[in-house]
Amino acid sequence: MSTLRNNRLFASLGTIVDVFGSAAAAASAVEAGRAPKAKHLKTLGIDADAFRSIGKL
Asked: How far apart are CA 27 and CA 20, in angstroms?
């Protein structure tokens, strides 16, 4: 039982690290005037096409 609980804990921690890493990468790209990578936007739950259309009329 504790092995299953540990696996869930590590899986949750891995997901949290992925989300924070993607947020940092996307923020860094935007600050540098570049578009973030689609994989980082997907991890954050943001549609890459919708993000790229921001500010366009």
From this structure: 10
Candidates 21, 56, 57, 55; CA nearest to 41 is 21
Number of domains present in the structure of the chain: 1
In a domain, 22, yes or no: yes
Backbone φ and ψ of 5, nearest 5°? -65, -40
Range of the domain at 21: 2-52
pTM score of the predicted model: 0.79
Amino acid code (one letter) for 57:
L
The pLDDT tens digits of the residues spanning 2-37 come to: 777 778 878 888 899 999 999 999 999 999 999 999
Q: Does residue 57 form part of some domain?
A: no
Judge contact between 44 and 19, C-beta under 8 A.
yes
